Amino acid sequence: MNTAMDARPPRHEADPVLTIEDFSVDYLGANTTHAVKNVSLTLGRGEILGLAGESGCGKSTLAYGVTRLLKPPALITSGSATFHSREGFSVDLATLGGADLRAFRWDKISMVFQGAMNSLNPVISIQAQIEDIFTTHRPEMKKAERVERCGDLLERVGVDRSRLKSFPHELSGGMRQRMMIAMAMALDPQVMIMDEPTTALDVVVQREILDEITRLRSELGFAVIFITHDLPLLLEISDRIAVMKAGEIVELNDAYQLYTNPRDEYTKRLLASFPSLTGKRGDFIRTGIADDRLTETDQEVVAS
Ligand SMILES: Nc1ncnc2c1ncn2[C@@H]1O[C@H](COP(=O)(O)OP(=O)(O)OP(=O)(O)O)[C@@H](O)[C@H]1O
């Protein structure tokens, strides 16, 4: 029976923060690659959307394309990406150029890329590197406030503020990646795109950072596009998951629905390729994070 609740559009449609429509990207050359083909999706405000799919299916190209970071031979051949600000305005990212686009990227949409922690400048202190974001984007901010904010940011991601004086080589990989996440959050963006942000880290550190991301998302309300080929990880942290294959989204659904009732053959194969997902359901719920997605019957299965 349809209730008033059922009639309501899903949250991501009712309150979108990013709308991607018919987005296509080619890499031009003797053998042109159609890396992203007519992708449409809507990211809801505060939502974690997982983007899964095997290596080379176009996940990163989509992320770089949407944020206009692609360089030739990449060419956006169709579509648009529109950001809907919580302040009430919408902007087609294609209409932004140069300084506007750079400002927009830190301010409204920020990114954490795989291996980004290795691109930190080794001879500049952590403080100076974070402070630089404020000096550039918030020039009116006073020095004392900048330093205070740098310390707050580090603490937000679980790094002691005394580390501000350290240099990148003095921090562990996990700490450096936390610092990248802190930097991406510096200007309170409404969307964060994370491309394999924890892949290079050991599983314990990876787990800590993922918990941190989900906690901060609840606290600060930003939306995340989380890209990885690690489907079990996505099932734990995502509200919805889009599965990509050969440049196209073949399935997009609520994470739990996708896990329990995959519709596309490729999604089924992807799920089956992770042994831990084919065992008892308790194997999949590696932490308590996803417990609230389970029905009572599922809870009994996990408990037994
Ligand atoms: N600079 C480039 N020039 C030509 N082709 C490219 C370039 N970068 C990526 N491609 C191709 O575009 C397709 C999509 O690649 P992309 O890196 O977006 O996939 P991905 O799903 O993010 O992979 P991974 O998980 O390995 O990062 C692949 O066929 C890849 O070979």
Automatic annotation (TrEMBL):
CDD domains referenced in this protein's UniProt entry, alphabetically: ABC_NikE_OppD_transporters
Cross-referenced Pfam families: ABC_tran (PF00005)
Major localization class: membrane
Protein's cellular compartments: Cell membrane
Gene Ontology molecular functions: ATP binding
Keyword vocabulary terms for this entry: ATP-binding, Cell inner membrane, Cell membrane, Membrane, Nucleotide-binding, Translocase, Transport
Keyword Thylakoid appears in the UniProt entry: no
SUPFAM superfamilies hit by this protein: P-loop containing nucleoside triphosphate hydrolases
Claim: Coiled coil is one of the keywords in the record: no
Membrane topology: Peripheral membrane protein
Domain ABC transporter positions: 18-271
Coiled-coil intervals: none
Similarity comment: family membership: Belongs to the ABC transporter superfamily.
Alphabetized PANTHER family for the sequence: ATPASE AAA-TYPE CORE DOMAIN-CONTAINING PROTEIN (PTHR43297:SF14), OLIGOPEPTIDE TRANSPORT ATP-BINDING PROTEIN APPD (PTHR43297)
Name under which the protein is recorded: ABC transporter ATP-binding protein
Species: Gryllotalpicola koreensis
